[in-house]
Design brief:
heterodimer, A: Nonspecific Lipid-transfer Protein, Chain A, 5-stranded mixed β-sheet, B: AttH-like fold, 10-stranded mixed β-sheet, globular
Chain lengths: ~180, ~325
């Protein structure tokens, strides 16, 4: 039976709690009392820990959250298949994480805790396989070698005129000559 | 033609079994297209431990296209292991020590790669005295520096017959944990046809300081010479102007700080024992980064595969040697 987004999050936390108590404890400590809204395609849930227990609730746009993370299954599949680097996905807007700096850092650290636990945790690897198998059927990717074609270079945003003015005054702009 | 070889899984009573590592490895060089590829199936951890992994890797770098292929990470118990072959559903390698046949297969159509090859060993095996210390453990290995290749690569829609290609195979086994203070530098250099076939190897620590005697083995037209110890010099220089493809994706996401490692662009290696001499100059054109997670201990190692071309010159048994070809070198840390 296919998992929902909330089902995957519950399964990850349950596996860590039963197989890797240190990773589970780190996750709870990093999350603290924060509430995050997680969105995958058109699914959205809000997650938090209350008295050490994970709570997954339907997303309520009217409710205040500390951080928000949004991506899509195609991006996750490409990340898992090594066709896309995280830095490129963020620059392309394929992964959006918003919140206060500490909330953003906490969300990224929780992702790291899960990824770091996975190599020594067969249950997490099986869950990843389930996600790939379940998601691949609905997200047919053009088959072929290489990485996903990206359009965004480093420094995606155009610089403002005022910024250019400051850089020019400090002689920090590259030479105009070819 | 070939020394008897076999896989060496640990017994159930081996206390070092959790540190068990073993793999069969094949490189194939297509001199017509310039494609350089590898097929490798490796075992990590004690048999019977659900955390132990089997990893199939099939990667080909084709000029103008880039890397095709991927890693296939499975439970070790999913691997079919015989005396001299390791098979996963999508990647398999076998080395038949009696017939001298080497077989490799990979079916990774989602990653634009299919490999089917049958190769014949030419010349005796390279047997390395061992075991060699590595990290807090040890490694043993043997190699077949030149294979006569049959079969093909399929990279995307492009079919590359390998009849004019060259090949290399090796078998490694030992006990260590990824993430320990360990590394190595290794290379396979093959000229087309009957030209020189060269193998270079050096165990190091993570900072690439030598921890054992280096080795360069030269094979050409039935003759062979091994340079070792102080007869060998290895120098890396330059910075490769290309970002590596990184595998597997989940670990690449975890180690975002390794997205742009400072990899060398050039290798100059020399063997000179006063009688015979060999100089190799290798220029890298692309790299892949394989991130190796230990299934038991918390640790990671990083294996960089650099592909490119090389030239060599030297003297063997009074005869001058010269050649150009394709190569792959590894830097593990």
């Amino acid at each position: 039976m296919p998992h929902s987004l909330g089902g995957y999050i519950e399964a990850i936390v349950m596996i860590l709690a039963s197989n890797d108590v240190f990773a589970a404890a780190r996750m709870r400590r990093v999350a603290g009392a924060r509430r995050a809204r997680i969105m995958l395609d058109d699914e959205a849930v809000e997650v938090s820990f209350r008295e050490g227990e994970l709570r997954v609730e339907p997303a309520d746009p009217a409710r205040q959250v500390d951080g928000t993370g949004r991506t899509d299954r195609g991006t996750v599949l490409d990340l898992l298949a090594a066709r896309l680097e995280v830095s490129a996905a963020i620059l392309e807007g394929l992964i959006e994480i918003e919140g206060t700096p500490d909330a953003v850092a906490a969300m990224l650290l929780i992702i790291e805790i899960v990824l770091d636990a996975a190599p020594r945790n067969p249950a997490l690897q099986l869950l990843a396989d389930e996600f790939v198998n379940e998601s691949s059927s609905g997200h047919v990717r053009a088959q072929g070698p290489g990485t996903r074609q990206l359009s965004t270079a480093w420094y995606p945003a155009a610089s403002a005129a005022a910024e250019d003015s400051v850089l020019a005054r400090l002689n920090l702009l590259p030479d105009a000559g070819g | 033609m070939i020394a008897l070889d076999h896989l060496r899984p640990p017994s159930p009573y081996d206390p070092s079994a959790p540190a068990y590592k073993e793999w069969l490895h094949v490189n194939v060089f297509d001199h017509d297209s310039g494609a350089v590829g590898l097929v490798n199936v490796s075992l990590h951890g004690a048999p019977g431990d659900t955390a132990s992994r089997a990893v199939g890797a099939a990667l080909v770098e084709l000029p103008g296209v880039g890397w095709a292929g991927n890693l296939d990470v499975r439970a070790l118990d999913d691997a079919r292991i015989s005396i001299e072959a390791i098979s996963l559903d999508r990647v398999a390698v076998g080395i038949d020590s009696r017939s001298g046949l080497v077989m490799a297969s990979a079916q990774l159509p989602d990653d634009g790669l299919r490999v089917a090859l049958t190769a014949a060993v030419r010349g005796p095996a390279l047997i390395v005295d061992g075991p060699i210390p590595v990290g807090q453990g040890w490694i043993g290995w043997s190699a077949w520096p030149r294979l006569t290749i049959g079969g093909e690569y399929r990279v995307g829609e492009t079919v590359l017959p390998l009849e004019n290609g060259s090949g290399y195979a090796d078998h490694n086994w030992g006990r260590w944990h990824w993430g320990q203070d360990m590394g190595w530098e290794w290379g396979s250099f093959l000229c087309p046809g009957d030209g020189p076939a060269i193998v270079m190897s050096q165990m190091t620590d993570r900072a690439h300081r030598w921890t054992a005697e280096p080795l360069i083995e030269l094979r050409i037209a039935g003759a062979r010479r091994r340079f070792s110890g102080p007869a060998v010099s290895i120098e890396w220089s330059g910075v490769l102007d290309a970002l590596p493809r990184r595998f597997p994706g989940a670990l690449a996401a975890l180690h975002a700080d390794r997205v742009a490692p400072r990899l060398p662009a050039r290798l100059d290696a020399q063997g000179d024992d006063g009688l015979d001499m060999l100089e190799i100059t290798f220029t890298a054109r692309a790299a892949a980064q394989l991130i190796l997670a230990d299934p038991v201990h918390h640790g990671y190692s990083f294996l960089h595969e650099l592909v490119g071309s090389f030239s060599c010159r030297g003297r063997l048994q009074g005869r001058d040697i010269e050649g150009e070809g394709l190569a792959v070198v590894e830097r593990a840390e």
